[in-house]
Amino acid sequence: MEIFGVDIGGSGIKGAPVDLDRGDLAQERHKVLTPHPATPDRVADCVAEVVAHFDWQGPIGITFPGVVTDGVTRTAANVDKGWIDTDARALLGERVGQPVTILNDADAAGVAEMTFGAGRGRKGTVIMLTLGTGIGSALFVDGRLVPNTELGHLELHGHDAEKRASTKAKEDEDLSWQHWAHRVQKYLLHVEMLFSPELFIIGGGVSRKADKFLPLIEKVRAEMVPAELQNNAGIVGAAMAAAGR
Ligand code: BGC
C-alpha cells in the first residue's frame, strides 16, 4: 500500500509516495525550498506544489516542526508565528484537495524508526531525539508514542536546551565536535535523569556523522544509536500516520 508523505522542514519541504510495507519511498522524493518567512499560506502553496509534482490522489500525511493537536498547530519555535493556533488540517487539506493528517516532525520520524529502523522491536522507554535547527523528541513506551513531547525546550543551565545543543548551535557558534558533544552529553544526561530510557535514537541530518560525536559521549547510561532512516524518516512516518499505523 502507498500513501503520500510530506516533511515540512526549516530548509526544505519534501515529499514522496511511501511504500508502507517496505517503509521506504516508492519514488524519488521532490523538494522545494522553504519560503522565508514560512507563513502558513506560503508553506501551504509549497506542500501543494510537492503533491502536484506526483499528481497524487489520496490520503496525505504531513509533518510540522511544532506541537500539533487534532490538526491544529500550537507552537512555532522555528517557523513563522502565524502557525500558532492555525487549523493546519483545514488549510493544507483544502489547498491539496485531499484528506490530510498532520503530526509533529520528531513524532513522525520516531514512528518510522520504531517500525523500520533503529527502534524495531524495542520495548520499554525509548526516546528519539532529532538534532537539527531545533531539537525534536519522540517518547515511546513499549512501542507506543506519547505525542508532542517537547524535550528540546527543557531548560539547561538557564537556557532553552535546543539553543545550546542543536546542530544549528554548533554551526552558529562554530563549535568543535568535542565541544558540541559535551553539550549534547549534558543534555542527554538531563533527559536521562527525567525518563531513564533504555535507548536513545539520535536523528537529524547529523546522525550520518554519528561516528564523529557519539563516541565522545561517555557518561550516558542508556544505549545510544544513530537513526537508520535518516533523511526520509519524517516522510515515511507522516505516511504511516495518514494510514493510521
Ligand atoms: C519544536 C519541536 C520540533 C523540533 C524539531 C522544536 O523547536 O518545538 O516541535 O519537533 O523543533 O523540528
UniProtKB/TrEMBL annotation:
Its EC number is 2.7.1.63. GO terms for molecular function: polyphosphate-glucose phosphotransferase activity. Belongs to the ROK (NagC/XylR) family. Pfam families: ROK. It comes from the Bacteria. It comes from Streptomyces microflavus. The gene is ppgK. Keywords: Transferase. NCBIfam families: PolPhglucPhase. Gene3D superfamilies: 3.30.420.40. PANTHER family: POLYPHOSPHATE GLUCOKINASE, ROK (REPRESSOR, ORF, KINASE) FAMILY. It is an enzyme of class 2 (transferase). This is Polyphosphate--glucose phosphotransferase.
